[in-house]
Amino acid sequence: MIKKKKNIRDLDVEKHSAEHAHDDGHSHDGEEINFKSYLPAIISFVMLIVGIALSYFKVPFFKGWVEIVWYIVAYTPVSFPVLKEGWKSILNGDFFTEFLLMSIATIGAFAIGEYPEGVAVMLFYAVGELFQNAAVNRAKSNIKALLDVRPNEALVYRNKDYTSVNPEAVEIGEKVQVRVGEKVPLDGILLSKKASFNTAALTGESKPDSVANGEKVFAGSINLEGVIEIETTKAFKDSSIARILDMVQNATARKSKTELFIRKFARIYTPIVVFLAIALTFLPYFFVEDYVFQDWLYRALIFLVISCPCALVISIPLGYFGGLGAASKNGILFKGASFLDEMTKVTTVVMDKTGTVTKGVFKIKQIEAIDREEAEFMKYLMAMEEQSTHPIAKAILEYKAEGEDFEATNVSEVAGKGLKGTVNGKIVLVGNKALITSNNIEVPKETDSIVESIVMVSIENKFAGYVIIADELKEDAHQAIKQIRKSGISKIMMLSGDKDSITQQVAKELGIDAAKGGLLPEDKLTEVEKLMSADHKVAFIGDGINDAPVLAASDVGIAMGGLGSDVAIETADVIIQTDQPSKIAMAIKIGRSTRHIVWQNIGLAFGVKAIVLILGAGGLATMWEAVFADVGVALLAILNAVRLQKMKW
């Protein structure tokens, strides 16, 4: 997780290029679909503007059947999907939808000769739907990147030679060879003497995992040192990386889509408006002496056109897109408007450790030199570590010591323990506690309580000191926890693949309520599902491939977009582009502010609509007054939504 990830646009370009190379037509199809979705609205808009201009300038030929046909052609591209959905809903027994209301209102507009209004109303609705669809498409989890992590070949020992086969064809108990830099294809046990693996894909931890003969090895781990052999213990479909892929797919499928407010509102609003229009047509017969059916039908159709909730359709997405814009401006990417709403409901925040609240990079935390100056002690240590490629060695070599460096000779590796060599004619041991004690050197008891990675040094069979290496907390980690609490979150929890002792220490330092370490992806998923089953609304924050299942399953998945893995970024609902955990609280606040603005816009649109409906029912409002009221409300909604861009959180 420590290597810098590409930005999302770069990923999209690379994916497009890869697809283009394999299937030229496929890539172009994707572009055509995107353009086609906007084409109906563009055609209708152009024809509507041209039609209004022809009417305004009273062009002789533009009247009668020519005008009617022109507007029908303009109406068809944007109305066909709505009319089709309305008809489907009726066949399925769901009569009162926004599709039915739009259909009746716009057909009614044509019936009373208000052709431009009929087209305009449906065009407004179509544009609103395009906005919403764009948000939904961004919210869809793309987990194809997991396929890049999944091993695609295994060198299996058959007929006295190693043969490359598909991992799915390898049986349990077979011997598999893994070269340096290759991924372990299946779960198994190590047959070689020792091995070192990058298990970031599984645990999210950047520290290499050292494994001895007979210990477990997991599929998806990357072999770092030498050619090794493993004996498979599970079929490919049951391997660690295959389970992660399966969990992400299942969790994404289980996650229900947030229903848009306009859909919920239409189920109440539509039947009321339809029955009022019917009543407006027939009830006057019992109360008006000179009742004329055509006049009251005309008034009812005007009422229906006025009742068409285009201001609502416009004002709601405007509020959400104002929130999306404000979030983006602050380095927070919401993949859909619905997730702004979901953020307001979060009661529990669960977070990963490495790469989320820590930097995912090893640094020297503490140096304890005994009977020597710190600089001299470090020169002995650095001379030995120059012979190693281990990430901890790299962290130690970042130390700056004045004067000439020491040089190590006769350096050899003690399997699973460390290094032995000679520096300035003195025998030096560098490694873990087991290395030092196996040479009958006494280690201070104070080191027993240290939970971080510790490198011990002995010079001439005497304990010379130690260096503590730890992952650094991000600069705003403490501030992030405080702000999350201030935003009203009742519970903060940490789940990590790192050692439990280290996880507990980081959680204690940050003031986090509960923590669990040493977890595999399925363990994290189980913990989050327990919380969700207990009616907690959970936001999970992570950055690794191992976090992908939990990001998909949680109510809101938040990924770190700078250092985060491609899979985490693709699976999450929200991306913190700056990698700052303090942005989590900001995302919650932006969600709440957006919700307030949306409800203000709804109240404004509905209030004005109610007034114009009453006037329309009484014959006091014309079609143009209704359109003007809608346009006025839409402008006010725009100005209100723009306020989100100016707010400070």
Automatic annotation (TrEMBL):
Gene3D superfamilies: Calcium-transporting ATPase, cytoplasmic domain N, Calcium-transporting ATPase, cytoplasmic transduction domain A, HAD superfamily/HAD-like. It comes from the Bacteria. InterPro entries: ATPase_P-typ_cyto_dom_N (IPR023299), ATPase_P-typ_P_site (IPR018303), ATPase_P-typ_TM_dom_sf (IPR023298), ATPase_P-typ_transduc_dom_A_sf (IPR008250), ATPase_P-type_domA (IPR059000), Cation_Transport_ATPase_IB (IPR051014), HAD-like_sf (IPR036412), HAD_sf (IPR023214). Its EC number is 7.2.2.12. The chain crosses the membrane at residues 38-59, 65-83, 95-113, 119-136, 268-288, 300-321, 597-617, 623-642. SUPFAM superfamilies: Calcium ATPase, transduction domain A, Calcium ATPase, transmembrane domain M, HAD-like. Keywords: ATP-binding, Cell membrane, Membrane, Metal-binding, Nucleotide-binding, Translocase, Transmembrane, Transmembrane helix. It catalyses: Zn(2+)(in) + ATP + H2O = Zn(2+)(out) + ADP + phosphate + H(+). It holds the Pfam family E1-E2_ATPase. It is found in: Cell membrane; Membrane. Residues 150-249 form the P-type ATPase A domain. Belongs to the cation transport ATPase (P-type) (TC 3.A.3) family. Type IB subfamily. This is P-type Zn(2+) transporter.
